[in-house]
């Protein structure tokens, strides 16, 4: 497979990197996360209007660029480098593909053009607080247990004559406090024939309460979404389909995009560390001249480049998304941790950016991992350990969790 980037893809990367270099930085990021939205609305409008980022992977009939997940992954790699707080991931990588896959023609026509031009942001609200499980990345999501199992918990949907109302709550909703549209996973049909479906809830819907939560990574704002008999619209033409399969399909592509973003985070942390050790002196020599430091940096470079290759492959072959995400999250965790260590005492302080990269890596693994479960589920899906049920029994019998 040819993994070389096209001229157009190089131009997307160069243009976005130049723009972010001018408009992001420690002070700009701190100001952005302190806003009510959790990001810089003016910069978001520019990214959407001038570069068309939210619509990169949407069809031209909806005002998008008609590109593929590869272009969106390249864009997210650059936003990851800059630690950019923005609704791009929640809107373009999680919500938009589900609307495109499940929505009726009228729903797609009403929502996707507004997503493409940046005037509408969206968030995926999943009960249980586990994005990774609901997207089928760390376990099988078809049984619906991640969403409360249908008997209790989660979000319940009740409908009469096509009018739906939702009751329940979802935690750790990425960008859920400010999104103009929520895609809420809820149980419908009662316990005997319960199935998980997706519903559209406007951000200004009555009896909808959204609370921004304190997060480890403040550039990834999370929210609690409470629905108290809140009116909603079913995503799709009828209530016979189950959303779990669509969530799993979208999850594999989202994993590839997330992997590229994590690679950007790791690469930027490594580059900043290399520049630092060239100037920091110890015993009259630059720290970077010591052989042990050179070896550590070389190991990190190999990790980052291997993760980048995996992410680019997964953008073209989404089935590889969960494994690529595992490799990228691990590379980000190790690289940012080493970056703090190699910066010495300054790396631990609020005055330096190194700790922000470490928080992004740790926060992403909490939100979309952990790494060992991503790999374990991918191995079971590939049949490496035989039937999943048998392998699970062997592991549990051996005391492995």
From TrEMBL:
Q: Which cofactor does it need?
A: FAD
Query: Is Phosphoprotein a UniProt keyword of this protein?
Result: no
Which InterPro entries does the record cross-reference, listed alphabetically? Acyl-CoA_Oxase/DH_mid-dom_sf, AcylCo_DH-like_C, AcylCo_DH/oxidase_C, AcylCoA_DH/ox_N, AcylCoA_DH/ox_N_sf, AcylCoA_DH/oxidase_NM_dom_sf
Q: Which residues form a coiled coil?
A: none
Keywords assigned by UniProt?
Answer: FAD, Flavoprotein, Oxidoreductase
Q: Which domain of life is it from?
A: Bacteria
Report domain Acyl-CoA dehydrogenase/oxidase N-terminal positions: 6-118
One Pfam family it belongs to: Acyl-CoA_dh_N
Report the residue ranges that make up the Acyl-CoA dehydrogenase/oxidase C-terminal domain in this protein: 257-381
**Which protein family is named in the record?**
Belongs to the acyl-CoA dehydrogenase family.
Q: What is this protein called?
A: Acyl-CoA dehydrogenase
């Amino acid at each position: 497979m040819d993994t070389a980037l096209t001229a157009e893809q190089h131009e997307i990367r160069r243009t976005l990197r130049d723009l972010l270099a001018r408009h992001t930085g420690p002070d700009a990021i701190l100001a952005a996360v302190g806003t009510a939205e959790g990001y810089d609305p003016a910069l978001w409008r520019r990214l959407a209007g001038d570069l068309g980022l939210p619509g990169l992977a949407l069809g031209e009939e909806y005002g998008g660029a008609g590109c593929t997940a590869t272009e969106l992954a390249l864009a997210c790699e650059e936003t990851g480098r800059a630690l950019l707080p923005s609704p791009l991931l929640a809107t373009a990588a999680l919500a938009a593909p589900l609307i495109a896959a499940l929505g009726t023609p009228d729903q797609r026509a009403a929502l996707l053009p507004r997503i493409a031009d940046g005037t509408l942001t969206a968030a995926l609200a999943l009960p249980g607080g586990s994005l990774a499980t609901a997207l089928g990345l760390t376990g099988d999501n078809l049984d619906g247990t991640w969403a409360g199992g249908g008997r209790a918990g989660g979000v319940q949907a009740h409908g009469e004559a096509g009018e739906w109302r939702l009751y329940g709550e979802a935690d750790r909703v990425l960008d859920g406090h400010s999104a103009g549209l929520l895609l809420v996973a809820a149980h419908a049909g009662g316990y005997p024939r319960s199935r998980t479906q997706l519903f559209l809830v406007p951000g200004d819907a009555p009896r909808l309460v959204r609370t921004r939560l304190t997060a480890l990574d403040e550039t990834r704002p999370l929210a609690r979404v409470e629905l108290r008999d809140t009116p909603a619209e079913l995503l799709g033409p009828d209530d016979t389909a189950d959303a779990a399969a669509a969530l799993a399909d979208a999850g594999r592509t989202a994993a590839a995009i997330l992997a590229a973003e994590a690679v950007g985070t790791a690469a930027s942390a490594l580059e900043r560390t290399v520049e630092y050790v060239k100037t920091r002196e110890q015993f009259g020599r630059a720290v970077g001249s010591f052989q042990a430091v050179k070896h550590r940096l070389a190991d990190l470079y190999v990790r980052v480049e291997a993760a980048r290759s995996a992410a680019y492959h997964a953008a073209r072959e989404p089935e590889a998304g969960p494994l690529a995400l595992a490799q990228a999250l691990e590379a980000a965790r190790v690289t940012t941790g080493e970056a703090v260590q190699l910066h010495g005492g300054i790396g631990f302080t609020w005055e330096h950016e190194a700790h922000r990269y470490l928080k992004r890596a740790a926060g992403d693994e909490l939100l979309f991992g952990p790494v060992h479960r991503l790999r374990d589920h991918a191995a079971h899906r590939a049949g490496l350990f035989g039937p999943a049920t048998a392998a699970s029994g062997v592991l549990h019998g051996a005391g492995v969790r």
